[in-house]
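hey team, just a heads up i'm posting the complex here instead of the shared drive bc the drive is being weird again. everything in one block, sequence lines first with there labels, then the predicted structure for the whole assembly after. its two chains so it's a bit long, scroll down
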Amino acid sequence: MSTQSDNIFQAIISHAKEYGFVFPSSEIYDGLSAVYDYGPNGSELKKNIRDYWWKSMTQMHDNIVGIDAAIFMHPTTWKASGHVDNFSDPMIDNKDSKKRYRVDHLIEAYADTLPEAEKNALIDEMQQLEAATDYAGLKKLIDDHKIKCSVSGTTNWTEIRQFNLMFKTEFGAVASDNPDDNIVYLRPETAQGIFVNFLNVQKTARMKVPFGIAQTGKAFRNEIVARQFIFRMREFEQMEMQFFVRPGTEGEWYKYWKEARLQWHLGLGINPAKYRYHDHIKLAHYAKEACDIEFEFPIGFKEVEGIHSRSDFDLTQHQLYSKKKQNYFDNDIDPATGKPYGNYIPYVIETSIGLDRMFLLILSNSYEEEAIPKEDGTTDSRVVLRIPAKLAPNKLAILPLTKKDGLPEIATKLMDECKPYFKCFYEEKDAIGKRYRRQDAIGTPFCVTIDNQTPIDQTVTIRYRDTMQQERIPISQVKDLVLGMVM
RNA sequence: GCGGAAGUAGCUCAUUUGGUAGAGCGGUAGCCUUCCAAGCUUCAGGUGGCCAGUUCGAGCCUGGUCUUCCGCUCCA
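-- predicted structure starts here --
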């Protein structure tokens, strides 16, 4: 990361706070690590992004429907999904070098130095201990083999501790004798709320494969390192769509959604050169094929969205753990046999985008510090957020040039006319130039100014944020003109 | 978690060796202004991150603590 892009990132964070987009959580108590709050402009922008996604999924696809599942889920959900076992890595620290290791990495690195037979025996033993979550046994394994820290060269280890990905809490007001009875997790992904409702949705909405279920909502993960502003948060919001397909067709649907999702991003008018795919080589336990859509943030190319071919892993797991059939009966005729495709567990293509990351993407892509040459030879500066008009917190600022001569009355009338259709901002104080700059700073795409000519011929000037150009139009056309640009 | 740096007004920063804090910008209210951060005036805003210690006296010295930033470590 260069110093310059680092400075831009810092400037964006400051700007976000100063103009009411993003505040550090609980700031008066010195903040809470990796948690942030969205302010007045931020919550509008975030909502607009969410709505834009939701509409593109559910309204623009007649084979995708939405749900809103609870954050709390039955704890067995997370055993079935693999989150309980696969995402709690045991860790160990060397007391001399202060280095922290994942226990499996430490033992595997040591095993690589051994002859083949000894190596395999050691790995086997480790895996059995891991499966039994026998931390004492793993520690003994490290001690018995005198495994050293590569930095300090000593065997002075702490006890093995578990790193928990999921937040745990207690369910029910009455304590149980067995504390495990009451544990629920805050969901680490929204996807499982879709999977456990697969048949409910399919039957009640009368959906036929291929079809999708969309959902937006909060998810929670204990990150090891909490940095990089809202890019990596402990509480964050996902926008996910799980698309259920006939087995054997998952390859073509994976390709379809991989392409469709990038087009969604480009449809916002963002420079294609700032995007790239990152295909996964090493796949998660549930994945068949997977890629990320990465965006060039000021901190480098980072993942915004993932497209995963999850096979029938999740539904099969839930069938296993719940003992409830998750079959779908496909009445369509298979041309190969002349008979219906019949019963099967559908395969799933997942598209999963981080709403907060998308927010940061829009902010990063929009932020610009501009130098403007003035007529007298000096230069002016402005900070402008070139937020796509359809996502901007405010669509239109209505500005009477002065507070006199009946101009505020005309402006208020225009405000009342436009308000039901899109978010407007009214301001009559300070010089017009200052008001324009304030709107630039929060990304308002259009300003109209009511001046002394307005009462005479019912025209106003409309000023465009990106070019700073203005033109004179009839006041009666303002609403439809803006509406046409923001829909 | 480890190492380094930094915490003074909403923001950016001053306050020469210890003597109870200032400026610019921003905000507020008004005047004047007919289109890009203009001018004049008004007002508000800080127990100097927090807690101890040294001292007659601490924003400044000492210790602790918290937070943030940078680097390392980890990352489905």
